[in-house]
Design goal:
144 residues; alpha/beta; Rossmann fold; 7-stranded mixed sheet; 4 helices; globular
């Protein structure tokens, strides 16, 4: 299944993410693809707002951030992983991603997943961001 949206503001991108989060019945993996400043972190902030998290910041320099979720019946932890600085499967596995993937109470959001396409779970969401101008973003969601 594939759906495409056009967002013209940060607020619209965050609202789209919150709408997307409403449909999640259990934890999963969400892979965010797009160039720098395409809207990946803004989308993740929208997910965070839905789950009652007021401050989601890019984990570029620390690689992964973990946020406790207290307002969802199933999802209990949101993990935000940025693979931009990693260069090997050994590097990514050091963050216990296999354990995170195996727990349905975890929601794992990955930026720059194309670097490790071979180890991503088959069941996931791929979300592609394309900047069509200063404020406009095309957001395409694929469910696998």
């Amino acid at each position: 299944m594939e759906t495409t949206f056009v967002s013209t503001s940060y607020e619209e991108t965050r609202a789209l993410a919150a709408d997307f989060a409403k449909k999640l019945e259990k934890g999963t993996t969400v892979c965010l693809y797009g160039e720098l400043a395409a809207g990946k972190t803004t989308f993740t902030q929208g997910l965070g707002q839905f789950f009652g998290l007021n401050r989601i910041v890019s984990p570029t320099f620390i690689i992964m951030r973990q946020y406790p979720v207290t307002n969802h019946p199933i999802i209990k932890t949101l993990y935000h992983l940025d693979l931009y600085r990693l260069n090997s499967v050994v590097d990514i596995r050091a963050f216990d991603v296999d354990e995170i993937w195996s727990d349905p109470t975890n929601l794992l959001v990955i930026e720059w997943p194309e670097k490790f396409q071979d180890i991503l779970p088959k069941k996931r969401f791929d979300i592609f961001f394309k900047a069509n101008g200063e404020n406009e973003r095309e957001i395409r969601i694929q469910e696998h």
